[in-house]
Amino acid sequence: MILDRILEQKKREVEALRERFADWRPPTAPPQRRDFRAALQKSPGEIALIAEFKRRSPSKGELGVGRDPAEMARAYERAGAAAMSVLCDQQFFGGRLEDLLAARNAMGIPALRKDFIIDACQLAESADAEGPDAVLMIAAALTGEQLRSLRLLANQCGQAALVEVHDEPELDIALASGADIIGVNNRDLRTFEVSLETTLRLRKRIPEGVVVVAESGIHTRDDVLRLIDAGVEAMLVGEALMTADDPVAKAAELLGTR
Questions:
Q1: Which of 39, 107, 110, 254 could tie 133 with a disulfide, CB 3.0–4.6 Å?
Q2: Which helix (H) or strand (E) holds 109?
Q3: Mean pLDDT of 44-67
Q4: Domains of the chain
């Protein structure tokens, strides 16, 4: 399964990263960052857009060849995005942390590090770079205790945690960890099959006060309206924007501003 392959590679990367941050200690007080969670909270009937930059994906191959993260950041912000997600995994997605830093320096909205976070040293790397305002954590890649510990450490570093789930058991783990931002990935990372019904089904089980983000499989305004009707606060869109001839126009189409 693709997730297993990614996590095996990530474990090898983490071993090297641990040496680099062996003496790192978290800050005694959370530094001020851009408020990712607040950026996703819109008025009823509206939905926040987390616009994504990624160079490639295991399922679709190369995306947006030649596009620059800083230029895309400015375009996304101009289009009305509430935040930006940047793929930082290199082996499978062709990304790097430098892409996120370039994007964040070019815009005024929060930046999410989208990666496969499995160890505290990765959060140390984020904190040391002073880049991400939020980090993605995938419930399928962590135990409940690991998720809680890493989420609290991220908060201590001033970074929000977007906890990603794919099904009911993972959702239960995310909620038990205290997650207050939950992303429902409509793409199963084990099979890469996509269905918007995943978000619509799980949304009913998520309590008030938890911000819900729909991820993957969002391509049209009709898709977006279904999410709004279900009470979803935000959507994370990558491939539909990265493959569009005009990402600004595509973002406006999804947001219903054109």
A1: 110
A2: none
A3: 84
A4: 2-16+36-255 (3.20.20.70)
